[in-house]
């Protein structure tokens, strides 16, 4: 009964708010990418030139860092279902990274934005699947890329899906036929954690390059991170 009622209220809300706003007409914004016009990543491939000394990471309250180029749109929390993207780049330097970000803005303090970032990150001499979840402070997990790679530059398809009050992060493998769980984030859509539920979630793609290249004249080298197959499922 409750389940049915919940679905019904979602459908009602969805039809009233989003009937005239399909995913293809959402507004997109660039954060930290001056001079670049935002375009929707839906239905096209996008390559982002990511400068060094950038990150999305909060290891201490006083060290909130949200300096990476981030192309995002804003979705009402009630309507978010899932987001997926395929990411690749010539990863070669410690912490080179790119993938999805979900950010839950905090109206009272921009430094307290909660976020999930998930994608590929270069660590221990190889690209891996990395997930950072930041409620108060950031924590980070890594999983190996186990799927056979078809290109020299590691590629992965990352999915973040809502399941009740949780967000689950998956890597999608076997041409979309299987998914492997990387992370369960219990605070994502939970109103019961003392911080209250954000009304909106910012959803999009990012690349970051915390480490400068070594070698004379290479400190400002960028990494080109490419995204394809972006899919945003809102109800
Ligand atoms: C963000 O992190 C990068 C990489 O560690 C660093 O170079 C940069 O100075 C930091 N920026 C801020 C504003 O903390
Ligand atoms: C946010 O954090 C930065 C350091 O990353 C600091 O310089 C700034 O003062 C903080 N702003 C607020 C409102 O706390």
UniProtKB/TrEMBL annotation:
Signal sequence range: 1-19
InterPro entries: ConA-like_dom_sf, DUF1349
UniProt feature coiled coil, ranges: none
Keywords, comma-separated and alphabetical: Signal
Record-given protein name: Glycoside hydrolase family 131 protein
Source organism: Trichoderma asperellum (strain ATCC 204424 / CBS 433.97 / NBRC 101777)
């Amino acid at each position: 009964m409750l389940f049915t009622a919940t679905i019904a209220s979602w459908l009602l809300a969805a039809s009233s708010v989003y009937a005239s706003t399909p995913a293809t007409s959402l507004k997109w914004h660039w954060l930290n990418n001056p001079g670049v016009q935002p375009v929707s990543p839906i239905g096209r491939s996008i390559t982002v030139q990511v400068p060094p000394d950038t990150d999305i990471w909060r290891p201490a309250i006083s060290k909130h860092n949200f300096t990476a180029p981030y192309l995002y749109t804003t979705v009402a929390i009630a309507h978010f279902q899932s987001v997926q993207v395929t990411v690749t780049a010539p990863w070669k330097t410690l912490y080179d990274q790119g993938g999805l970000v979900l950010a839950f803005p905090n109206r009272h303090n921009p430094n307290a934005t909660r976020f999930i970032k998930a994608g590929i990150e270069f660590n221990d001499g190889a690209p891996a699947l990395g997930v950072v979840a930041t409620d108060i402070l950031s924590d980070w997990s890594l999983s190996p890329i186990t799927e056979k790679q078809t290109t020299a530059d590691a590629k992965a398809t990352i999915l973040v899906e809502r399941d009740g009050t949780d967000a689950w992060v998956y890597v999608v493998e076997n041409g979309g036929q299987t998914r492997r769980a990387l992370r369960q984030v219990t605070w994502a859509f939970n109103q019961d954690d003392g911080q209250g539920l954000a009304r909106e979630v910012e959803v999009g793609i990012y690349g970051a390059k915390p480490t400068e290249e070594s070698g004379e004249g290479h400190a400002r080298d960028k990494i080109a991170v490419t995204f394809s197959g972006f899919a945003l499922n809102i109800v």
